[in-house]
Design goal:
The chain folds into 2 domains: 137 residues, Electron Transport, Fmn-binding Protein, Chain A (Pnp Oxidase, Chain A), CATH 2.30.110.10; 40 residues, no CATH class. It has a 7-stranded antiparallel sheet. The protein is an alpha+beta fold. The protein is 31% helix and 28% strand. The longest helix has 14 residues. The model has no long low-confidence stretch (mean pLDDT 94).
Length: 205
């Protein structure tokens, strides 16, 4: 069977396949951070940041204590950029294309929150000091102008049993094993894995 012979190519085909969106699905979307949506943002310790740039797409995790993404006002979010691997893929994209999408998760909570907007990168001293953790300021802060906000229903979380499932670490390849394989042995996987916990702890902020 050729799956490409049954490809959806037009919006009207897609709409016929799925039908009309429910009233709640439309009315839940607003152009600002409603107080109820603010409560979800302030409860979230984890968000996925999606960006687009000339070199492609990027979706990467951001995490900190709940409320680390600050609702500065109903149209503005602030998010610190903590230490990482210095690839800065998301930031490179934002320089070229400010459009961003955020997906907030709350452990144990089925609904997620989606925010679409436009970001700019700030190194304003006052902002950096405001987001200091353990006496260390972030490299920069994303200032996000909100375009749309809405909650995503819990079906995906329920289907995945995300907050119930625990996958044993022994069943998964370690970062060191992955790197050793991808570098054809030029990186010592055992050494990498042994040193990783201490390195991550010392460079958390």
């Amino acid at each position: 069977m050729n799956p490409f012979g049954h490809r959806i190519r037009r919006i009207d085909q897609l709409e016929d396949l799925f039908g009309d969106a429910g009233e709640a699905s439309i009315r839940k979307e607003v152009d600002h951070v409603h107080p109820h949506y603010r409560a979800l943002i302030e409860a979230s310790p984890f968000v996925i940041l999606a960006t687009s740039g000339p070199d492609g797409l990027d979706a990467s995790p951001r995490g900190d204590p709940p409320g680390f993404v600050v609702v500065d006002d109903a149209k503005t979010l602030l998010m610190p950029e903590r230490r990482g691997n210095n690839r800065i893929d998301s930031l490179r994209n934002i320089v070229g294309d400010p459009r961003v999408a955020l997906l907030f998760l709350i452990p144990g909570h089925g609904e997620t929150l989606r925010v679409n907007g436009r970001a700019r990168i700030s190194v304003a001293p006052g902002l950096l000091v405001r987001f200091a953790m353990d006496g260390k300021a972030p490299k920069c802060v994303l200032v996000i102008d909100v375009d749309t906000v809405y909650f995503q229903c819990a079906r995906a979380i329920h289907r995945s049993k995300l907050w119930e499932a625990v996958v044993g670490g022994e069943a998964l390849p370690t970062p060191g094993k992955i790197l050793q394989a991808l570098t054809e042995g030029s990186m010592d996987g055992e050494t990498y894995d042994r040193e990783l916990p201490a390195r991550q702890k010392s460079t958390l902020y």
